[in-house]
Every structure is written in structure tokens, then in C-alpha cells.
Amino acid sequence: MIQLPYIEPVFRPPSEARSLILQVTNGCSWNQCTFCEMYTLPQKKFSLKPMDKIEDEIVKVARSGLPVRRVFLADGDAMTLSYRRLKEIMEVIRKHLPNIQRVSSYCLPRNLKNKTVDELATLREMGLNLFYVGCESGDDLVLDRVKKGENFASSLLALQKIKGAGARSSVMILNGMGGHKYSEQHARNSALLMNEAQPEYLATLVVSFPQGIDTYQAGFKGEFEPLDQQGLFQEMYCLLDTLKLEKTIFRSDHASNYLVLKGTLNRDKARLLDTVKQALNQPGTVPLRPEWMRGL
Ligand SMILES: C[S@@+](CC[C@H](N)C(=O)[O-])C[C@H]1O[C@@H](n2cnc3c(N)ncnc32)[C@H](O)[C@@H]1O
Ligand code: SF4
Fold this sequence. Notes:
Layout lengths: L19 E4 L1 E2 L20 E2 L2 H14 L5 E5 L8 H14 L5 E5 L10 H9 L2 E9 L3 H6 L6 H13 L3 E8 L3 H19 L3 E6 L7 H6 L9 H14 L5 E5 L8 E5 L3 H13 L15
Parallel strand pairs: 1-4, 4-5, 5-6, 6-7, 7-8, 8-9
Antiparallel strand pairs: 2-3, 9-10
The protein binds S-adenosylmethionine and iron/sulfur cluster.
Iron/sulfur cluster binds next to loops.
């Protein structure tokens, strides 16, 4: 077992459970989304890790002989690093861990503003080929209320750049994010964003407030009414119904979800819609994750 000097807490997508988590940055440079408390502790103030420290950690892992195949660049928006720095990191990874098959990172749309498709293609050729993009919604009003600092157009541009570079994107959309009032427009516009972007992966999570709802509510000027289970399923139905995807792996299995849904869209759309309809119309006949097993 090797110990890397992580600044805790460290978050990663569920699908990176077996990857080497390489903390090339600490925290999130934006850190303003009203639903996200992941990087709010004092020690998580945004900072870059010096290149020599990153290389020391990679060398340590290489010397351990562990069979590392995948690397996840942490924390919340490692893609804020410049193209030059990311290229340097990829060179060091390839030098010491030549058997790496995939390097991935969270990626805010604005992280790609100053990166060209050619630069992203170079990084992709070096192995950085998967980006987890927290679009959260395709609805501009909802995105504004939660202070995401992005909108439909900026999110689409980033997803198109990723595709143009031959890399893959895994998008996160938050079920329940607009509350009652904006549920339908949130679902519809999120689906329209996905239809235009055609991401390789799409995941939905249920928006949750482990440390209270006050900041979130302030962004909505007091008009946020959280969705109950039925409301969340109704919104999910609208999202799925509006999706027109060619070949996207869809997962709604994160621990925050009550109803687990998995499939490839649009191939499995009818089956997934049937499951949601059953959860809506025949409560108790579809297994749901109990409240005590839910988490972020
Ligand atoms: C660690 S964050 C990093 C994502 C990246 N910074 C971005 O914005 O694209 C990963 C994801 O966790 C999800 N998340 C964060 N806070 C959440 C909350 N309170 N409820 C549900 N999901 C949340 C969001 O989908 C977010 O994009
Ligand atoms: S959701 Fe992403 S961009 Fe927003 S504060 Fe959290 S880590 Fe930062």
C-alpha cells in the first residue's frame, strides 16, 4: 500500500473507483455553485500542485509496481490548468506509467475556453481522453439561480470541442434542480442540450442538501420547492421522453437516486420510460433505494 499526500476530502466519479487518483490541483477554482459543498472546507482553498511534487507522486506509484491502468486528475476542475501544464503532466505520466490506458478529469465548460480543439486532440493522443462535465442543467434560468456560471451555449460549445478532439464526455444532470416551478423547463432544456451534444455518457444525480438548503434557497429568492419522490420521477420521465440520443450510455445509479435506471439511449428508451411510469403509477412495485442508503 502506498500513501499519497492527499488534501482531504477527495471526490471522484463512481466509475473511477479503481483508478489512481492524482491530485494535480486542490479544490475548485470556481467554488460558487450553491448546491456544491464539496470544496468549502478551509484546507480545500483552490491551489495548483507544483510540477515536481506531481512527478514525485507518479514516480512513487511507478516504483510500487502497482498495475495502474487508469488515472483520474483531481480535484474539482483540474482542466483549469493550462494546456502547457496538462501536456507536461501527461508527459510525466507516460514516462513513468507507460501502460496507462485512460486519463480523465472533471471539466467545467469554461476550462476549455482557452484551449483549442487541436490542443485537446494532442492531449487525447497522449491519453487524456475522458471528461466528466457537470452541466447540471440545460436551462439558463436554473443555471443562473444556482450560480453555475455556465449556460446552454457555453456547455454545448465545450461538449462539441471535446467531441471534435476525439475525446469522450460524461455529463452530469441534476434531477430536482429547479424545484417544482422550473421542473419541466429544466428537464426539457437539459434533454435538448444532450440532443445537440450527443455525449458518450450521461448520468443523473438527485440534488441533495447535506448541510442545509439556505444558500440554495437564497439563489431562488425563496421560491425553491424541493420535489418529492413522485416529482423527481415525473421530471425524469420528461427528461427521458425528450431525449433523442444516438448512442449514449445512461446511468441513474448514483447513491443519491431513489430509482436506479441503466441503459443505452435511445435504444432502451421505451423500457426506461416504462420503469419510471410504473414507479409513478404503481408505487411499491418498483424497488427504490431506501433513504438511509442514499448519499452523495
Ligand atoms: C465534484 S463535482 C465536480 C464537477 C466539476 N467541477 C463541474 O462542475 O463540472 C461533481 C459533481 O457532483 C455533483 N454534485 C455536487 N454537489 C451536489 C449536490 N449537492 N447534490 C447532487 N449532486 C451534486 C454535480 O453534478 C457536480 O458536477
Ligand atoms: S459543481 Fe463543480 S464548479 Fe461547481 S463548485 Fe462544485 S466543483 Fe466547483
